[in-house]
C-alpha cells in the first residue's frame, strides 16, 4: 500500500497477508506506518496506491461503514464507546434492534432483546460482566476493552483490526483481553493486532509482521522468533532479516499489496 500526507510518505509499498483464524501482529517504531496501514485497510483512509483484497477479491472501501458491511471491524485505541450507555447499548450502538410491528416502524428500540443478545455474546467470548445494564463508566479498563472487542466480534465475520488493545491495562486485565483475542481467532476470524508489547505479541500472535519507514521489512513465525530478533528488524540492526513464508495454509482473508 502507498499513502502520502503532503510530502510525507507514510506507506511506501507496505504489504502483508492474513488468513482466517490467524492472529497477525503488526509491530514497528512510532512512525513506521502501522496505524496508517490499518486505517487504509479498514476504510478510514483512502490509499494513494496499491490494492486491498478480501478473500482474493479486490475491494476499495468508501469508509469504515462500507468495511463493516464487508465483515471488517476495527477496535480503536480510544475504544469509541459511549460512556453513559450500558454495555448492551454499546454493543449495538449504531445497529440497534427495533421492536416488531408498528413500534419498530416508529423507531422504538427492543432493549430486552438487545440485552439478551448481549449476555449471549459476552458469554461466548468469556467476558465477565455481572450486569450488562450498568453504564460503561462503571466498568474496569479491561471490561471496557472487552466490550469493544465483543462489539466488533458481534458483527465481523472476516477481519478484526485491534490497535493497542492492552494499552494502559493492568496485568490481570491484559491477560483477559489476550485470552479474548485468542477466542476470537478460534472462531475463524482473522485478527490483526497492533502492539508495542513484545512479550504479549509473542504470547498471542501466530505471525509477526515488522514495519519500518512505511515498508514491511520482515515476517516471523511467533513461535520461532525472539524479542531480540523483532527489535533488530524494527531498528534495522539485523542484516537482512528473514522473510519467512509463515502464513497459514488456506485462502487469505485479507491482503494488502504493494502499490505500483
Automatic annotation (TrEMBL):
Outline the segment boundaries, as ranges, of region: Disordered: 236-260
**Key word ATP-binding present:** yes
GO molecular function terms attached to this record: ATP binding; ATP hydrolysis activity
InterPro entries annotated for this entry? AAA+_ATPase, ABC_carbohydrate_import_ATPase, ABC_transporter-like_ATP-bd, P-loop_NTPase
Database matches in PROSITE patterns: ABC_TRANSPORTER_2
ABC transporter domain ranges (all copies): 2-238
Keywords, A to Z?
Answer: ATP-binding, Nucleotide-binding
Keyword Transport on entry? no
Name this polypeptide is given: Sugar ABC transporter ATP-binding protein
Species of the source: Streptomyces mangrovisoli
Q: Species lineage, top-down?
A: Bacteria, Bacillati, Actinomycetota, Actinomycetes, Kitasatosporales
